[in-house]
Amino acid sequence: PASLRQVWECIKPLPGEHRKKWDPNVKDFEIVEAISETVAVCRTTTPSVFMKLISPREFVDVVLLKEYEDGTVLSAATNVEHPRCPPQPNFVRGLNYPCGCFCIPIPGEPDKTHLISFFQTDLGGYLPQKVVDSFFPSSIAGLYSNLTKVVKEFK
């Protein structure tokens, strides 16, 4: 329940932006290399979670930002290796398969946005599947709950 610009300001993948302030799954976000105005290699780190059963992770992705004529905004990413970002000793390297989100304006309803996100992540390391299965659903639900709260505050 917010305008596209409000939602986008909260989720866009840029350093120092709102995402790491409201999303407890994002500890830090940095641009490793800006390839163009719309493409960059980025590193995202996460804190340890689930009573520290899941160690901190790092993800290195190439990210594409695109805006369409109808106002839809896309952020798409996939994992990549980069010489300036070798695996760090205090993190487990995870992999994001092709993923992203669309912020789509709803015609006639400027204070509403349709958000579609898709992702498939390999957390890496040696995690029992039961741990992953019990952590991910609440993490995803928390993402949308937190986004809804922060968008209301952003207004």
From TrEMBL:
Q: Name one Pfam family in it.
A: START
Q: Which UniProt keywords apply?
A: Lipid transport, Lipid-binding, Transport
Concerning SUPFAM superfamilies, the annotation shows: Bet v1-like (SSF55961)
Q: Which residues belong to any copy of the START domain? A: 17-155
Which one GO biological process term can you cite for this protein? cholesterol import
Signal peptide residues are none
Q: Which GO terms describe its molecular function?
A: cholesterol binding; cholesterol transfer activity
What does this chain do?
May be involved in the intracellular transport of sterols or other lipids. May bind cholesterol or other sterols.
Q: From the Swiss-Prot or TrEMBL record, give the protein name.
A: StAR-related lipid transfer protein 5
Q: Which organism is it from?
A: Pterocles gutturalis
